[in-house]
Amino acid sequence: MRGSIPAGESSHELRRARELAQTLAWLRLCAIAGQAITVAVVTYGLDLPIAAGPLAAGISVLAVFELFAVWRLLRSTPVTPFEAVLHIAVDVGVLACLLYWSGGVLNPFVPLLAIPIALAAAALPLRHVAIVAVLVGLEYALLARWHVDLPPLHAHGRFNLHVLGATVDFAVIAGMLAFFVSRLARALREREAEIAHERERALRDEGILAIATQAAATAHDLNTPLSTIRTLLAELRRERAADAALAADLDLLSGQAQRCKDILHALVEVGRRQLAGTPTATTLGAFVTDCENQFRLLRPEVLLRASVFGADGAHAVGVAPDLRHALLNLLSNAADASLAAGRADIDLGVRIDHGVVEFAIRDHGAGLAPGTGSVAFRSSKRDGLGLGLTLAHATAERLGGSLVAQSLREGGLLQRLRIPLAPTDNAAP
């Protein structure tokens, strides 16, 4: 079970802290390998008189902490920024100990102390970065005062080992800066794209809200004239009961008026449930059957072949108030596309995949226009209002799902409406 968010910490800060801890774990593993190889080469390859025992002990301590850090990251408990600072403190402390036994600030690898500051600045709040900076500065000052001197490096071999160490140090720092700066730039670009998407979504939802408000007012205004029409139709049936042909037409008109009133009542009910945020408890099979029956009443000229995969029909779900309308809009658009191509049939396949219910609507129309891409939210129908796909896409996003469209090689269009199921009541969130 995932732990709760600690008080005073935002989810964004916790996510960045965990990412930093994961990065430190990978870098720590590389540092252990590099330090062990360096100590072995200097001690046995170059036969330099260095404190190999204390250096090996420090590397061992770092290896033990790496095992603890990996175990910690495998747990679902949130990693706080302060905990990430503690990880950095351990890494910097072990590195300071290694530098103490190998020349202190005169060691060519001493610039590596600045790397934790850069990592903290890229992931942690300012107050935690200040802690890391003070810690690193204090350890640098201590190393400048107390350390064990290295033997004269230039006297061993035909090249200056200090220059070699500085070269390796430069390569390591340059590589890490290039990696993390590019990663930070990519994160900034993704954030800008996300902000632009949210801005577009907010503008679209604002337009949809205006349409919904107008629709609610229209539904209220239409209720009175519909009641008047039904009353007049009833009187006409009584007055012209002898005219069989007219009576049949009046029955048809009365049925259509009743149908309009039922639609208005359903619209009001959807709005009431939407405001309350309460889903309708049912099974997936019953929901699909209800949508199938409602579609056949709306579009009797089109054959709908609906199927639910395996035993998914018995799966209990909580249907969001506007999911049915989104699905019916997609089915209606598919019907129009098939009819335009001379076909009168569409297909609906429903299945549950890893906690996500997928509605696959396939028509036999012309498919997507070239250059449209895999997602289309605008209707190309001449007599359409252009709202069906927009509303379906908005519903999918609001429920945490997605809507994608794909042209098929054999002709037609396949639209996939994917909605995640909530873990508690199997309702779309």
Task: Please name the defining characteristics of this protein.
429 residues; disordered C terminus; two-stranded antiparallel sheet; 7 strands; 10 helices; alpha+beta
Notes on the structure:
- Mean pLDDT is 78; it is low at 155-159, 374-380, 382-386 and 423-429.
- The protein is built from ten helices and seven strands.
- Helix 1 (11-45) packs antiparallel against helix 2 (52-74) and helix 8 (284-298) crosses helix 9 (323-340).
- The chain has a five-stranded mixed β-sheet.
- Strand 4 (345-353) and strand 5 (356-362) form a beta hairpin.
- By secondary structure, it is α+β, with helices and mostly antiparallel strands.
- The protein is elongated and about 120 Å long.
Describe what is shown at a glance.
With 429 residues, the chain is an alpha+beta fold. Helices cover 61% and strands 10% of the residues.
Order of helices and strands: HHHHHHHEHEEHEEHEE
Number of helices: 10
Report the biggest beta sheet as strand number plus sense, adding barrel if it closes.
Answer: 5 strands, mixed
What portion of the residues fall into strands of 2 or more residues? Answer: 5-15%
Gross geometry: elongated
Q: Give the N-to-C terminal Cα separation.
A: 19 Å
Question: How many strands in all?
Answer: 7
Overall average residue pLDDT: 78
Helix content: 55-70%
Low-confidence stretches: 155-159, 374-380, 382-386, 423-429
Task: State Rg.
Answer: 34 Å
